[in-house]
User: Which sequence fits this backbone?
């Protein structure tokens, strides 16, 4: 019998949590290291018109992502943290898709050929690649949220094992 390379079932929630946490930690750190650049990118979405709101988002959001990433990596209330990251990802994805749609309607480019810096911390990206990446991260967040039992957590929810 050949050994399986797939992780045991109990490790799937851990793997999903670690990948999601690492992604949020990385992307939040990139934004936090360049707050002025991130502010300029947030402005491009035209979602916020008040200077105070723009500055608050640019100052707080990267650190919020970093905290979510650290909580997921440590396993502190993973379901609650996954719910927050899922909400963030749904908001980010809809804003990115909306901006891409405006560019698509105005420029005559094929949708998947559109590229811009969405402010996610990865630089200029092809829009279809970014939407797929965000969808994958949202599915990981959903998996962490719905998985029964979370081992290897510093502070799991009380209704698990």
Assistant:
């Amino acid at each position: 019998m050949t050994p399986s390379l797939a992780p045991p079932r109990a490790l799937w929630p851990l793997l999903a949590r670690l990948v999601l946490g690492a992604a949020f930690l990385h992307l939040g750190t990139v934004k936090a290291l360049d707050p002025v650049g991130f502010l300029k990118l947030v402005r491009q979405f035209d979602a916020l018109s008040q200077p105070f709101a723009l500055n608050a988002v640019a100052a707080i959001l990267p650190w919020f992502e970093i905290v979510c990433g650290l909580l997921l990596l440590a396993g502190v209330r993973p379901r609650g943290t996954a719910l927050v990251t899922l909400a963030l990802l749904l908001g980010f994805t809809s804003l990115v898709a909306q901006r891409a749609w405006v560019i698509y309607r105005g420029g005559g480019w094929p949708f998947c050929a559109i590229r811009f810096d969405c402010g996610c911390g990865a630089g200029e990206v092809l829009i279809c690649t970014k939407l797929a990446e965000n969808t994958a991260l949202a599915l990981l967040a959903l998996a962490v949220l719905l998985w029964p039992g979370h081992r290897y957590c510093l502070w799991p929810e009380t209704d698990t094992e």
